[in-house]
Amino acid sequence: MVGLSGVWRFDVRAGEGERSPQVFERWEAGLSEAYVPLAVSPRDSGEFRGWIVLGKYPDVELSTLGAAGQRVDRTETLIARTDIELLHTSIQMAGHGRLHQDGRVAEVGPGEMVFYDSTRPYHWEFDGEWEMDSVQVTLGRLRERTGITMGEIPIATTVTRDSPAGIVSGFLRELAELQDANPVHAAALAGSAVDLLASAISLTAGHTVPGESVETLNRRRVVEFMRRHCGDIRLTVDGIAAGCDISRRTLYRLLDQFDGGPATILRRMRIERACELLTARSDLPVTAVAHACGFATERQFYRAFRIEMGLTPAAYRTTGGGPSPR
């Protein structure tokens, strides 16, 4: 493993002069070092590549990992090697996996989340290439922070992205992306992951969640709604409130930790999307970019873009990208 800015990176692949079995052995060792002792077997005899990006914070560990098809086992013998008790939470990013634990089988596809317990046998099956985000928290810390015990956790139950608890998976996905780009900012936000996980567990189990957690989830729900619909020219502050089934007053309260209020947040989301299109789609006229990002007119787009980026859309495209939105 190689350390960089507080984040550990591990990458193995079959290369010249190195056979796939040797690479796979190193992959198994890397997985076991990053998580818990595991046994791994390949699904085919082709070339293999696997990688892990892992960040460790006071309350949680957060990682992104991916590899070729394989089976991953956590057996009684492997469990006996360590006394650590962890709740694993995985969010599938690409490919499909099947988690087996306690007689249950969870089919997990992109955007879906699942919980499992490191103290009881389980195994994962991946038929092809896959990628996932993973969150680990010790059961002791989970009990201390939230009062939740392992018996209350819905193990090997697929949490879909459109479910109430799916809001949490969206937060964890974004946190994993932030960790790769800006570990310092990710560390500042990682503390809320345990409370959000507790909310996701309670919601999946059909229980109520504490008021503070409800507030956090509602904030995430609003931000996710805005991100999904920011390209709609018709979307307004009133439309956001109506779409989230809350009042304007509640909307402003939920977003009061962000500078400028909901209208400013919406504008910034639209500009972020515009920046992506300007650099990725050089064939699109600026007017088309404006409309695709929720701006009614090119003039409105130019004005908003200059406010956020300090230069015109055309100049941004010419330079291949400028500074991040202010």
UniProtKB/TrEMBL annotation:
GO biological process, one term: regulation of DNA-templated transcription
SMART domains on file: HTH_ARAC (SM00342)
Gene Ontology molecular function: DNA binding
Keywords for the protein's UniProt record, in alphabetical order: DNA-binding, Transcription, Transcription regulation
Annotated InterPro entries: AraC-bd_2 (IPR035418), AraC_XylS_family_regulators (IPR050204), Homeodomain-like_sf (IPR009057), HTH-like (IPR037923), HTH_AraC (IPR018060)
Pfam family, one: AraC_binding_2
SUPFAM superfamilies noted in UniProt: Homeodomain-like (SSF46689), Regulatory protein AraC (SSF51215)
Organism superkingdom: Bacteria
Domain HTH araC/xylS-type, residue spans: 220-319
Protein name per its UniProtKB record: AraC family transcriptional regulator
